[in-house]
Amino acid sequence: MALAELRGRVARRLVEGGRGLAPEEWADHLVRVLPERPSRAEAERAGLLRAGVAALSVRPGLPPARVADVARELAVGERQLRNLFTDGVGVSPRHFARIDRVRHVLTHAPTSPWGELAAASGYYDQSHMTADFRTLMGVPPRSYFTGRLPSATPAGPPAPRGGEARHGRPARAERGLRAWPGRAGPPPPWPRR
Predict the structure, then answer these.
(1) What is the chain's Cα-based Rg?
(2) Nearest residue to 17 via CA among 37, 36, 38, 3
(3) Higher pLDDT among residues 30 and 89, named by residue
(4) Which of 91, 150, 155, 183 is within CB 3.0–4.6 Å of 95 for a Cys-Cys bond?
């Protein structure tokens, strides 16, 4: 990752002050810009994030934690928890929990039956686990573990917008077709009486 892509006040100071410096001057620049230790607010945010990650991770013998319960336990609002996760982890708390459950499935699948694994990972049932796994991994668990993975395909062109509908054809109104079959003008006002 390029230094310019990093976010935050300290990263901006590093980039702005480091432009045009020779490589041997960077060490002195880093010492001047980087704080010796994180500020109290940054340390508190990091502690909240660690606690949130621990609470939303799969815990053996405990039911999965809900985001609202974790926020209440940490004495923060759900929005603040979501922002904290987005900044610190890169995904929302709910998406993090889904990823962690699938990670748990990936780790324990060779040694556990599917039903027990689903319950231990915090899913309601095996079909819920399979659907979540398929959404995140692209294939159901059995296909993944037997090596039947989808073939890699390049991303296609973006979906057509505006005047063109599917397959390069003009939209219905532009082809001379009425938007409301059997009617000459615009649709009647609703509700009809």
Answers:
(1) 26
(2) 3
(3) 89
(4) 91
